[in-house]
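Dear Dr. H.,

I hope your travels went smoothly. While you were away I took the liberty of generating a structure for the chain from your last submission, since the lab meeting agenda had it listed for discussion. I wanted you to have the full record in hand beforehand rather than looking at slides cold. The sequence, exactly as received, is reproduced here:
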Amino acid sequence: MTATWWLGTVRGVRVGVHWSVLLLVLVVSDALAETALPSAAPGHATGAYWLAGVCGAVVLATGVLLHELSHVRTAQRHGLAVGSVVLWGLGGVSELETDPADPDTELRVALAGPLASLAIALVLGTCAAAAAALHAGDLAVSTLSWTAGTNVVLALFNLLPGAPLDGGRVLRAALWRRSGDPVAAAAAAGRAGQWLGAGLMTLGFLELFTTGDLGGLWLVLLGWFIATSAVSEARYRLALAALGDLRVGTVMSAHPTCAPADWTVADFLDHRARIAPYPSYPVTDPAGRPVGLLRIAQAVQLSSDDRQSSAVSLVCTPMSDCLIIAETDRVADVLPRVARLRGDDAAIVTHHGIVSGLLSPSDLNRAVRVASALGSPTS
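The corresponding predicted structure, in token form, is as follows:
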């Protein structure tokens, strides 16, 4: 899931929001303001219901974020790298860049989110009880009670046994511990996720066609997301198993044409890039160390004067925004990060600090296809 807006970083992890979160807030606000709150606390003005509804929707979204950040915190405590957290209309996605090494770690990371949601529900429930005791008003009490109950539902729903839900990871951990085979455990959790998704879609269609309630459409979308994500995750796990100990140096595009950092953009485009036309080039200093990545699509947008006067080092993507990996890294370990690259991006591969190759998503896909066709881990 790609974020529409990045909010910042938490513990070194980028946190973003997909545009569909706005739709979620609108739908939840409407449901609270028009139905749930008027039934629970009648007699208030329409504006008061909508204010309470928006507050409830924002608290719900915040609860989802805290749910995901609990996964992040637990993963980091166990030495796992986390790429980003993205909230979207059907929940949140935490992207782990490294997988748990054992079933116990898998279990702890999986349970962290639901436990956080239950803790949030307890806090909100306590606030609702305190508000009632202090006679703060039935609208405030009802809103707090609704958010507390929704977080309980969020925790329990996520514990359903099927990938990619937290319950699917709990199932994978249990099967992994029993069999000692993480790939077979992941495949079983993936199948469970597909069946769970299909069941939710069936329930959604039944609700939609028998009662006309548009809430059924929400179940259909949720079931579709779970089923398709389960298929994708199962394929990803099989790809990791097929790759085995394959190293980056064996699948990268070796000896790439490099852009000298002190050349002008015009000089490089006229001389080097015409000989070896690629979408992007590593930028290097005189010793061959990486400085950044030059994307041709960016370079050609410069005016003729800027190309003549600008050094490659000034217009390239800086090192801080580039993915740098080593020849000796396992392909399976860098797969999540390389697979997220978009457009003309590629990972710069180094050997003892010197640029030795590029690894693009297409290189990665080719390696996965070949390794999968062989049917066994490659070393």
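Two observations you may find useful: The first strand starts at residue 5 and ends at 10. Residues 277 and 359 are 16 Å apart (CA to CA).

With kind regards,
E. W.
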